[in-house]
Amino acid sequence: MSSAAPSAPSGPTPGGRFPLPSEIGPVAGAEGWEEMYPYFSRFQPEDDGRFWFYNSMHFPEVVPAFDGLTSEIPYTAIGANTARLFSFPTTLGIEYRIVNGRVYITANPVTDPAQVEARLAHFQERAGHYYAHWDQLYAGWQQRIEALIAEIEAVEVPHLGDLDDLAVVTGARGYASNHLLREEFHRCIDLYSKMWHHHTEFLMLGYGAYVVFFEFCQQAFPEMGDQTVARMVAGMDVTMYRPDDELKKLAGLAVELDLADLFVEGSEPDKVLSGLAERGEAGRRWLAALEVAKDPWFHVSVGDGFYHHHLSWADDLTVPFAALPRYVEQIRAGEDLTRPTERLAQERDRIAGEYRALLGSEDEQAAFDQMLGLCRQVFPYIESHKFYCEHWFTTRFFQKIRAFGGLLAERGVLAEADDVFHLRHLEVEDALADVQLAWASGGRELGARHWQPIVARRKEILGALAGWSPPPALGPVPETMNDPAVKMLWGITDATIETWLGAEALDADTVRGYAASPGVVEGDARVLMNVNDIGSVREGEVLVCPVTAPSWGPVFGKIAAAVSDIGGTMSHAAIVAREYGMPAVVGTGQATAKIRTGDRVRVDGDRGVVTVLR
């Protein structure tokens, strides 16, 4: 792997500012990286005057060429819903740029008071319609998203034989199968775009409701911490926890069928499956139950659905099978594996009641009740949508694109199926056109000599870029970072920026972040930089990572605490930690840089402090 060689510091400069985008120099061995991404994703000269931050929550790794779609299309949809459909008063959309393979974003605020007022009137009418009919509209959303999933699952890569099937002729279809190559590929891209529009249709409104309640609480109770606000909406049963629940059912079945001895810590999935196949009727029953659970509940990515190589449980059984031994052991011991939802709900109601009683008037109490009620109504969507969108749909999407890569490899254009992800989607279309022409003419594809060197070079570029340390932010420091959504999701505030700039000196053994979930524990650290290594986490360890994914629920059952570099009190790591009743500190910015696997650490989820003990 080539080492980074930027012409300017990759982090904050000695003068206490972040590098400008134009100051980011090249990385040795990664020359030409720009060709992997569209022109509109690159920094422009005028971008030096704006503040950007590295979106390591969604893009913690270098982005391969095809996966550039997973920033382009989501930000297209988020901005459209926020700015053009629902007319959020104080914000438009999010712009993104890619430099050295890393995604930076900035929000476009609305600052003109007259424009804010005009947009507010539209927002009240449009968003008000959704809030007033939330359950009915959400039911319609559920039908639409399931229909989209059915459509992506129905996409087929056409088979190009020596002759088309006779039925094409006798049925007078009117077009040969090579036509379907690009039509079906386009269909995948179009469905992915439509999914993201549906994805953000409710999501931004859900966050909007929470932000309004959050700001009310901050004004009414200045001493109230972010975590306290979040705990008033905890204890919800959401779809994103269903895959973990299915694992627990499978563990229970293993105990019931006397198969527990096969589920041992560290066993490879293939070895366990072979052992089950040899256990007669009991083994067959368990394997049949596994197949039922897999569709759809194993279509959950080990990442967050933004990279093709973050495989789903269905593609790689490592993560679920790493969790099963502990679940089996707990069930044999008679332990209750259910999440403490009832306890969280009781605590939620207690906290809300105590603060409500402090309000001075009936009007304030009525406003509190209305805002909290709306938050609790919309919150389940904020987590549940992820299973359908980033996981089930996106798993199927990447599987279909991989199948097109398989066809290109079969025809000799690419060396292997996954090489398709090193081409931009428009380049994939060119490669498919090459196949269309060759099959139609009886000639041969010319793409091998063109695309295979490009793919090989891009793999080298990705390797070189992986060694570059991206600055946490670029551009001039804003006067204040007070966007509540940015704070709750990414954990970025004025204090965060000061820490990034080095204004707050911390000793080498201390990491500070957001108190995301209460409790204090000690344990050995497991620093996880690659999401595909999640299966290596062991019982009782403290998970330290750049960012967690909601699909890591099974792992949350075995760890003592979670610590992340990025994230706020409403990030998925924080939400999941609270639902599992375990301490968490998020948004530290530097935990993975200061903590090593094997370090003994104390996680204080009440104060947001992580201490390296030895």
UniProtKB/TrEMBL annotation:
The entry's protein name is PEP-utilizing enzyme
* Matching InterPro entries: PEP-util_enz_mobile_dom (IPR008279), PEP_Utilizing_Enz (IPR051549), Phosphohistidine_dom_sf (IPR036637)
Q: Which organism is it from?
A: Actinomycetospora straminea
Using the UniProt annotation, give all residue ranges assigned to the region (Disordered).
1-21
PANTHER family in the record? PHOSPHOENOLPYRUVATE SYNTHASE-RELATED, PPDK_N DOMAIN-CONTAINING PROTEIN
On the tree of life, the source organism's domain of life is Bacteria
- List the Pfam families: PEP-utilizers (PF00391)
Compositionally biased intervals (Low complexity): 1-10
Chain ranges of the PEP-utilising enzyme mobile domain: 538-608
